[in-house]
Amino acid sequence: MKRNGAQILLECLSAEGVDLVFGYPGGVVLPLYHRFAEFPQIKHVLVRHEQGAAHAADGYARASGRTGVCLATSGPGATNLVTGICTAYMDSIPMVAITGNVARDLIGRDGFQEADITGITLPITKHNYLVMRAEEIATAVKEAFHIASTGRKGPVLVDIPKDVFIEEAEFTGYPEQVHLRGYPLADRPADLEVERAAALINEAQQPLILSGHGVIQSGASAELLDLAERAEVPVVTTLLGLSGFPEDHRLAYGMMGMHGNYYCNMAASAADVVLGIGMRFDDRAMGRFKDFNPGAKIVHFDIDPAEIGKNFVTHAPVLGDVRASLQALLPLIQPASHTDWLRHIDDLKAKHPTDYAGEGPELSGPWLCRAIAEETQSQATIVTGVGQHQMWMAQYYRYNRPRQFVTSGGLGTMGFEVPAAIGAQFAQSDPVWAICGDGGFQMTAQELQTVAEHKLPIRYAIFNNRYLGMVRQWQELFYENNLHSVALGQPDFVKLAEAYGITGLRATTRAEATEAVRTAARHPGPIVIDFRIVEEENVWPMVPAGAALSETIESAEEL
Amino acid sequence: MAAANSVLNTVVAYVEDRPGVLARVASLFRRRGFNIESLTVGHSDEPGVSRMTIVVDGQNTQVHQVQHQLFKLIDVVSAVDITDQPMVARELALIKVACSPQGRREIMDLATVFRADVVDVAEASLIVQVLGDEDKVDALLGLLRPHGVLEMVRTGRVALVRGSATSKPAPVSESERRAEAERAQRGRRPQGSLPFASD
Dihedrals φ, ψ of A429, to 5°? Predict the structure, then answer.
């Protein structure tokens, strides 16, 4: 059957099961938008800036586990996606970004709104396509979704020139197969690797699991729980690993790393066998590489062979899908107990708790996180921006359900929270809590119109300290308190919300905040709460830049 | 040229012959900070697949990272470090040397010793074509320099493993291909053969 390129693309998206696209139209994608109405099964959500489309698709993917899809026009539309694509790339998020480009005969001639988006996104996509013929669209789309959602997941971009949308081609249906000889996928790990890992775990006296994003991505939470309980291994997580292991469990100790719990960092520094599971030994998690627990034997479970040995010498690599690897490992694990080791960590925890909420009465960040956790019984899906509020929300909320915590870890993209919450909200009916910084909120606040249009019940909680808080903290601690360009002033966020027809609240005291959190939790539609928190508050504990995990400090006096 | 104490590793990659594949490889090397001594690319014996020979200074670049990061590119079909295997490694150089008619004899004698050819003769210059490993090319170049090297071009290393073994990607049978497609269809991951040594 003859179809034009636009129809073929939409047929393919439909066959792929895509029912939600975040996009923004423009000149060269008009032939595509012209055909959208023929495909009512695909809902198009109009964002107000293309960056919002990419972050929303990302938030949707993180919260649902499905592949997120965003769409933009050529030139500035495409380049506006770049930050969102890179955010997804750094955190291995399955995403397909579709862009239009100028007509084929204008490519390379600096046509109006031409940008070499496949060239631009080369280093920040898992793969990308410039589709030069309508008959190639189906294969490109099939491969794009396959690549984005398998192996180590990631964003794939498909760029389609305007006249390819218009060109007609024979459409014989969505391909059932992919032929990618350069893309074999590891499923089950090699037996030898699993046996070596099991031997190290069985011999360990002070084992520690470092649980990462891969546990969530591969759906391995149940297997991880089984492993932790069977061998009685305490579990700490990376930032993106939060929610992969239930934090109410007796073996859960929360987050490690630059702003991780003191006792987690000390445990990691004292363990004799460190099991990195679905994590990549990133510098923010591990501190100074060369001084990380030199005596520890490292067992590394990962799906990406390039991660094995990248930052650390690995004693027992297990290459494969994390869930399949743990399933293969479990029968070889002998039941064990590590009472003394657990007591040691519990003692550290008792002496060095992460508890900086303060006695009051001022409205502190940590206290506010606890208030939100209490009101929502730690059941809500949390989306954060980047900075102090992000770290506090990682430290003080208790994540028990996989995909409950949505945050930009690798790239650290401020402004992620506003649109990512939109994507997360489209993935579920329970209200999403978007924890925002006042800086990040102002980067993407235009998406409030998207929220209003769809009446999304998102609770935007702005941790408003009138500062670019984390940068201010670094200027205070490491740059002689020479504060420069970090004071953000005070826009009226309540009025801003109201300008979009969204309810706005303000809270300046703990009493007001308690009331506002309660009101927000019961609000039927979207709501923005301006929490005027303490201006100059720091996130503790902290591993100073360039220090080892064992050098975690709990106050500025220790510097 | 590599420093005297450098360790040169040879990585062979088979890549899909598609627009942009060289840009993907080059972009990878740049952003990962891989230090590349040479890279040659040309057709392989299989239509649609090109073969790259990449020489990496193993002293300042993790060769296994080069190999694994290369392999992560979808268009790279295989990437193998053949450094530890016996191989035939060659490069070709064309060296244009300044030379008066009286000086030709001496240069031609040098070329003979190196089993090089003089492939162009002009009033005031010669082009010497030499084939061999890098050391041989370096040695001849060193002897020609005093005469005045006007211009030079070197291909960089090309290499083949000795014997009947190859560095080619394992052929995928039609049944394996079908099985893989089926698994992809079901959203499951097939057991692939990744170029990863467990030790």
Answer: -95, -30
User: Distance between CA A472 and CA A56 in Å, rounded?
Assistant: 28
pLDDT tens column, A261-277: 999 999 999 999 999 99
Nearest residue to A543 via CA among A531, A558, A532, A524: A558
Tell me if A184 and B192 make a contact (CB, 8 A cut-off): yes
CA angle A83, A84, A86 (to 5 degrees): 65
Respond yes or no: is residue A557 known to be catalytic. Answer: no
Does ipTM surpass 0.90 in this model? no
Distances (CA, A) of B90 to A14, B10, B55, B155: 53, 12, 12, 9
Beta carbons of B74 and A190 less than 8 Å apart: no
| Amino acid occupying residue A365 | G
The owner of tokens 């991951």 is: B189
B186, burial (CB in 10 Å: exposed 0-12, middle 13-18, buried 19+)? exposed
pLDDT-based confidence at residue A184 (cuts at 50, 70, 90): confident
Q: Would you call A177 and B77 a contact, using CB atoms and an 8 Å cutoff? A: no
pLDDT, tens digit, 9 for 90 and up, residues B8-18: 899 999 999 99
Examine the residue annotation and report whether A113 is marked as an active-site residue of this protein: yes
The pTM score is: 0.93
Is residue A505 predicted with pLDDT exceeding 90? yes
Q: Is the pLDDT of residue B178 over 60?
A: no
Taking the C-alpha atoms of residue A140 and residue A178, their distance in angstroms, rounded to an integer, is 10
How many residues are recorded in chain A? 559
